[in-house]
Amino acid sequence: MNPGFLIKDPRSRIELRLSAAASSQERLAFLNDASTRIGSTLDLAHTCREVLDVAVPRFADTGGIMVQERLITEGEFPVRPKDGSALVRRVATAVAVDNPWDWNTAFPVGEVAVYPPLLPQGQAMATAKTVLVPRLEQAVGDENAEAFGRPIIARLLPGCSFLVTPLVARGNVLGFFVLVRRESSEPFQDGDIALAEELAARTAICIDNARLYGRERRTALTLQSALLPTLLQESPGLEIGYRYLPAGDLAHVGGDWFDVIRLSDERTALVVGDVMGHGIRAAATMGQLRTATQTLASLDLDPGELLFRLNRVAQQLDADQLATCVYATYDRATGALAIASAGHVPPVLVRPNGLAEIVPVVPGPPLGVGGERLEICEATMPAGGMLALYTDGLVETRDRSISDGIADLCSLLTGPPREIERICDLIVKAQRPADKRDDIALLLAKAMPVERTTPLC
């Protein structure tokens, strides 16, 4: 069943129904309850379901919320046509009637439609004012049935009392909130309009907040994905495997990045970095630091000197935005590794015999602070060896320290030779936290045997 279609017990409306004669205290209690239950998340669809869960059956027998399609898909305020018609999507429906599935057939959740101005829904959107229909005539029910091509509508709506209230935020009509009372129920009266409009106003604010949050997330994800490498460079002598997993939380779009940079036919640079913080600022800073790293790498600097200059760049970008980074160079002719770290989690080196151990890199301060040159750690990665670079999202959770997470990572990397893609999948599956509150970047580089040719003579 569609989660946007709520079925309530029709018998409960007898004891819960807020009548037109309700006191101001009863109405205030209703609105206070609505304020408590509406907007618990920044998910637009969930907010609409919460509203209808409050309104039905306490205020109406059935209800529905329609939101303009552009607001849902693009997060932008829709342009209201002069005739009031607009493309809207039914986000949620709630019913407290004996024949709920008839209403689901007549008004399916997820439907995208245009309500012409001759209908109460279109009129409410065109005027941005509530439309009250004490009892719907058969002719209006027939018009709705004809407009949407569903004869069942002509059977359900006649005799019903309608209250259609526009959802208005920042002076824009986002959609409308429709409440229906069956023929057997007391019809809506003028005194119900103020209550419906107050409920719609609170709903519109929550929907607008969800819109803004969703738009920021989409923007940050688009920016972040555009700045990350879609295809890493081929590196002679190295087999590369990588994974990038964005955070699952709406707010936590971060600045993790990784790169493989070919310096020459024999030498390759491996980079993983993490801009502290989340959102568009972090993603933008990540893109600038990644570009600067690629530019500095073209000068063939040693890792310590490169991170020293990258720190200067970071200080000029944003004084409040810090980042960590680990930069390593690999020479396939000798197997030599040179690694420097600006506050980053330590790399893990897997020996050809399958034993994984932490590379003893001395981390300097993060990018954006300090000014001293960083120490370089030298190691050797012979054929069959593998270097693992990653961000702290892979090894740190709320209930696990970084040291424990790194120890678990070393255990996962230790063992007989396996395909590098399989290793990536194994690590991510085992190490990614359930809350997914931080980005994860993982870069594996495995040294391949050096191909030597024998002279013909």
Automatic annotation (TrEMBL):
Q: Which domain of life is it from?
A: Bacteria
Q: Where is the PPM-type phosphatase domain?
A: 235-447
InterPro entries tied to this protein: Bact_Sigma-Reg, GAF, GAF-like_dom_sf, PPM-type-like_dom_sf, PPM-type_phosphatase-like_dom
Entry EC number(s): 3.1.3.16
Pfam families, A to Z: GAF, SpoIIE
Its recorded reaction(s) are: O-phospho-L-seryl-[protein] + H2O = L-seryl-[protein] + phosphate
What sequence ranges are listed for the domain GAF?
Answer: 33-217
Which Gene Ontology molecular function entries are recorded, alphabetically? ATP binding; kinase activity; metal ion binding; protein serine/threonine phosphatase activity
Please tell me whether the keyword Phosphoprotein is annotated for this protein.
yes
Determine if Magnesium is one of this entry's keywords: yes
Q: Which SUPFAM superfamilies match?
A: GAF domain-like, PP2C-like
Keywords from UniProt, A to Z, are: ATP-binding, Hydrolase, Kinase, Magnesium, Manganese, Metal-binding, Nucleotide-binding, Phosphoprotein, Protein phosphatase, Transferase
Q: What does the UniProt record say this protein does?
A: Primarily acts as an independent SigF regulator that is sensitive to the osmosensory signal, mediating the cross talk of PknD with the SigF regulon. Possesses both phosphatase and kinase activities. The kinase domain functions as a classic anti-sigma factor-like kinase to phosphorylate the anti-anti-sigma factor domain at the canonical regulatory site, and the phosphatase domain antagonizes this activity.
Among PANTHER family, the record links this protein to: STAGE II SPORULATION PROTEIN E (PTHR43156:SF2), STAGE II SPORULATION PROTEIN E-RELATED (PTHR43156)
Q: What is this protein called?
A: protein-serine/threonine phosphatase
